[in-house]
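Predict the holo structure. Ligand: zinc ion.
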Amino acid sequence: MSLGLNKVLIERFSRQIILKNIGTIGQKKILNSKVLIIGAGGLGCSVAEFLTRAGVGTIGIIDYDLVNLSNIHRQSLYDEKDLKKFKVKAAQEKLKLINSKTKINIYKHKINNKNFSKIIKNYEYIVDGSDNFETKFLINDFSLKFKKILIIGAISKFDGQIFSFNFLKKSSPCLRCFYQEEKISNDILNCEFEGVLGTVAGIVGTMQANEVLKQILKIGQNLNGFILILDLLNLNFRKIRLIKRKKCLCN
Ligand SMILES: [Zn+2]
């Protein structure tokens, strides 16, 4: 039973189509999904790579940076030939080689209130792979406004954090419920100062991609309203429920 998927697609995705709770119906959901990724760094590369391999139909990537040598230890879409190229361009080229059928839209800018509202409208799932809180709050606020499903990632040293919010539900908390202080130092997430192990970026990015696929397929237990904290040095993983704050933007 192909249900409209051609032979090549059936073969390409056979190892996940065979899974009971995916099947051809699930694969079609993946093929029709639209995911926006902010940041084409360590997290964004892994997210984009695995979603492209899984067959996500449309992926948008926003980033204004160039590839430099210190990126390559963790940013899995780039190699030495990509140095000095725009990350979004190099990422698009690499992703096209992986799966030529996925539509990759690239946006070569630093996001702000104006450009982000135009972009976000075209996507259902929003994945944050940015490296600073200013951007994370902006993504949070717009995902809330436009009622999107948002999966935030953060990494530093040997640690990772993943937040997930379903803003289609009014009861959802948001990032501001958790970080009540807006003046959090941006250095916390800046690996230029703090450092980060490359594998930490790969693990957290891949987990974000995993959460996106589960949300598309509506399978398993999602992370909505929780934060998952990963200490990858000592292998302690904690999942904490976020409390919706009364005086927050999300009310
Ligand atoms: Zn909130």
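The first strand starts at residue 34 and ends at 38. Strands lie at 34-38, 58-62, 103-107, 125-128, 149-156, 159-166, 226-231, 236-241.
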